[in-house]
Amino acid sequence: MHIRHLIPLFDRARDRSEPLVLATVVDTIGSTYTKRGAQMLFTRDERYSGMLSGGCLETDLAGHARTVATTGKPRRVRYDQTGPDADLLGLGSGCEGTMDILLQRLDPAERWEPLAGMLEAFRARRAESVLLVVESNDPGIPLGSGLFEGTGAAFGAGPDGDARIARTLAGARAGVPGPPATPQLHQDVVPGIDALRLPVEPPPQVLLLGAGPDARPVAELFAFLDWDVTVADHRAHYAQSEFFPRAREVRTADLRSIVDFLAERRTGAAAPPFDAAVVMSHHLDTDREYLRALAGTVIPYVGLLGPAGRRDKILASLGDDAHQLTDRLHAPVGLAIGASTPAGIALSIVAEIHACLARACAGSREHPGA
């Protein structure tokens, strides 16, 4: 469950000054539904957003959350699904693993941290990471306190205590490896204190160059994954927001403006740079110029829709620019899943990009150097 899905419940509760309880998976052993760093929210009346176990532990966890909401005291809860009594207790999730979960109250007194800061970074599309204290023998650095590594802001112990947390954890940061893409548990980050590093990554940025009818399911699938999609086309009758209701941006752009737009996004000043681009205008000359513009970027994944013969014709006409695309061009774009419908082809495209950005790129239909 992505952090974005916690936003509606969080915003509603904060607007009403109603306390929430944040549940964070600290660690897991064996087979579990979610892994370290997964989060969900509970209200005092046991409504919740997110999921940690596929629905099997949430009811019991809600009872613990109600206690935390009432007392304000954070607690860790362990669910061990490896024993023979798991099903008898009504907690069998079908996974034979163990989950440690930290529950902490979010309220105005503590500025709704750490979730407020995490969501602020996400909304600003700014990379951030949080050192969240998940075990402590120091009363001045309690469970659920922590430090935002990007801003240096501490939370969890009030103004005076936060200053001490900032000093303590800031000094420990040098010994903690740089922000990884996945949450990491660091034991004894300082003596007697374990901290969970939670990265907040902006959503992947995808550019669709071509806004024909077959681009719509591609954009919808990316939106379903909570990725940001920008759609551009030189044809105004295709580049319509009503056709791409969940895209971050839909723009009519001639080839000159595409070059300027890519240069702006490369700096990341106004918005993050693109992680992937798919060329799919179905117009040979336009696709060639889109690829020429992309050749001058460092976008790691570039996809081209269409058969291999069409690809070869376009690359031959690109001259030296083609060499700048060789290691990152996927053409024909998409995984070889036997797709023939627009929806199926969209699935193959989205799946391939997902795999490549996760460094698991293999099995594409065909691309130079494959």
Explain how this protein is built.
With 370 residues, this protein is an alpha/beta fold. The chain has three domains: 1-112, no CATH class; 127-202, no CATH class; 205-357, NAD(P)-binding Rossmann-like Domain (Rossmann fold). It is built from nine helices and 16 strands. The chain has helices spanning 7-15, 58-71, 115-123, 158-172, 215-224, 255-267, 284-295, 308-318, 342-357; strands at 20-30, 39-43, 48-49, 75-80, 97-106, 128-136, 146-148, 154-155, 184-190, 193-200, 205-209, 228-233, 249-252, 276-279, 301-304, 329-330. The longest helix is centred in the last third of the chain and has 16 residues, at 342-357. The protein is elongated and about 70 Å long. The protein starts with 6 loop residues before the first helix and ends in a 13-residue tail after the last helix. The mean pLDDT is 88.
